[in-house]
Amino acid sequence: MTKTILITGATDGIGLLTAKKLAAEGHTVLLHGRSKTKLENAAEEVGGNPETYIADLSKIADLHTLANDIHGNHATIDVIINNAGVLKLPNPTTAQGFDARFMVNTFAPYILTEALLPILSKGGRVVNLSSAAQAPVDLQAMLGQRQLDDMGAYAQSKLAITIWSHELAEELGEKAVVVAVNPGSLLASKMVKEGFGVAGSDLNIGADILIAAALGDTFANASGQYFDNDSQSFAKPHSAALDANHRSQVMQGIKEAVARLG
Question: Which residues contact 195 (CB under 8 A, 6 or more apart)?
């Protein structure tokens, strides 16, 4: 059965390759990007005239428009793949004073997914991009009250989305499957090349696990779990994600930030 699948950050890297593979299987793919030119090029590569959505995920107004546009075009969607992410930026602070790594990697997936839950099909899936790089969250940094270096902000934002994935899974129960996935360390993405100066490993490693998480039987009963593709298994995330007090603080911080964003 074909599915309707939203992929954020689908103009290059793992997102684009995942979109191409899913479209080739006959699924309806919704491509998100922040550049009109890149989206047009991605749509051409994917083929089949996929829908495209422009939004800068660091801007709350763009997020609301993105959600509203998807609502306007679809009564239901089956899968949300929150793939978009940032590591190094010329200016890592958003107009609202938040670190853009938290905004794009954590708050945007939260806001977009919450907005789309009413049209997510029963048994639908939310696949959140985590990372092997995870670190305990500095609540002041997450709320824009302290600056972090690039890797610190990235690692903390990835722990935060991993924590939220577990909490959302608990909240939704059998209504949907929510998983956090490390697609593989140092894959050949633009982020890896710019952030670490290495070519990286085969992107198919990441795309194939995202497709498995979105559609595969292995993930059907895995809601709330974290999959580490480096070990090719479900695994425990960073120990801070298992600390009930830290989870609670992080969730309170996310909700405070989202309330401030409006």
Answer: 87, 88, 150
Strands laid side by side in the 51-54 sheet: 51-54, 28-33, 4-7, 77-82, 120-129, 176-182, 226-228, 233-235
What string of pLDDT tens digits covers the 262 residues of the chain?
999 999 999 999 999 999 999 999 999 999 999 999 999 999 999 998 899 999 999 999 999 999 999 999 999 999 999 999 999 999 999 999 999 999 999 999 999 999 999 999 999 999 999 999 999 999 999 999 999 999 999 999 999 999 999 999 999 999 999 999 999 875 556 664 555 555 556 789 999 999 999 999 999 999 999 999 999 999 999 999 999 999 999 999 999 999 999 9
What distance in Å separates the CA atoms of residue 96 and residue 26, rounded to the nearest whole number? 40
Domains of the chain by start residue, with CATH: 4-261 (3.40.50.720)
Q: Which two tokens stand for residue 157?
A: 């934002």
Residue 237: phi, psi to the nearest 5?
-75, -175
Q: Where are the beta strands (DSSP E) in the chain?
A: 4-7, 28-33, 51-54, 77-82, 120-129, 176-182, 226-228, 233-235
Bridge-based pairing state of the strands 233-235 and 226-228: antiparallel
Instruction: Measure the CA–CA gap between 228 and 206, rounded to whole angstroms.
Output: 11
CA 12, CA 121: separation in Å to the nearest integer? 27
Dist. CA 30–CA 37, nearest whole Å: 16
Report helix, strand and coil shares of the chain as percent, to nearest 5.
50, 20, 30
